[in-house]
Amino acid sequence: xxxxxxxxxxxxxxxxxxxxxxxxxxxxxxxxxxxxxxxxxxxxxxxxxxxxxxxxxxxxxxxxxxxxxxxxxxxxxxxxxxxxxxxxxxxxxxxxxxxxxxxxxxxxxxxxxxxxxxxxxxxxxxxxxxxxxxxxxxxxxxxxxxxxxxxxxxxxxxxxxxxxxxxxxxxxxxxxxxxxxxxxxxxxxxxxxxxxxxxxxxxxxxxxxxxxxxxxxxxxxxxxxxxxxxxxxxxxxxxxxxxxxxxxxxxxxxxxxxxxxxxxxxxxxxxxxxxxxxxxxxxxxxx
Length: 287
Ligand SMILES: NC(=O)c1ccc[n+]([C@@H]2O[C@H](COP(=O)([O-])OP(=O)(O)OC[C@H]3O[C@@H](n4cnc5c(N)ncnc54)[C@H](OP(=O)(O)O)[C@@H]3O)[C@@H](O)[C@H]2O)c1
Description:
The protein is α/β, with parallel strands linked by helices. 38% of the residues lie in helices and 19% in strands. NADP nicotinamide-adenine-dinucleotide phosphate binds at residues 12-13, 15-19, 38-39, 42, 56-58, 76-79, 86, 105, 107, 118, 141, 143-144, 147.
């Protein structure tokens, strides 16, 4: 690790979707910061004055050096039972090294869907952070639009058991912009931000993606059992599959809280959230 720029911000998960976008926006805004990576080979290409620390949440001994001099942290998350212990390791090290404020990536619906493992893990991790005594901000995105550049798209088909139900959508770039505000400006401590730009059915999403890509992208309404089998054959874990099926049960029933959230971004960023049609244009070449 180099130490010439003395950054006070640490971005974890910088090789991932959210951490990578936060790093890009910090970089573009001219901030110096440090990133935590498990593997240097996964380093994103930032052009600014960035430090890299190698560390792993699973290895407590690797964390104090990465946290030296750090005041504010973007804390990435991932889905798996190990994440609770990993976060405990990280928060213990953060407290010891004098971190003040942690901005955590959580998810909408942590109480509502506490019976679904992904949301229960977020609920436990949120509480762990709140109870740690560190200053915190919780980012709670609904469904992220960038999912349509990955697992939500199968050969130009959107294959999910949603019927005509609507689901809230937010652009990961907006989640990152809110994180940037929380990491660099006052007024975000103790806040719990549900982040949503608009709610759309998957049929509407398929139309917007067809228009932006010029391809025929189709929504195929699956029955839940077929969806379960398709996720199984793609290697998803049973817990993750159960979480997805539970979300789609509520989308079909019209009771999914992701679908009921208005634009929560404007009060924070001073502009509305990026709409899906804009996302579809910006990401047309990646879809
Ligand atoms: N997609 C959605 O619609 C949505 C909506 C709301 C919330 N979320 C939440 O978003 C989270 C996933 O975020 P993402 O899409 O940014 O994930 P991602 O792209 O898979 O990135 C996860 C990051 O965490 C790092 N990481 C994994 N294990 C680590 C460890 N032991 N120590 C240090 N770093 C570690 C990874 O580093 P490596 O490169 O080394 O693996 C990677 O940089 C999940 O918790 C999910 O519930 C997603």
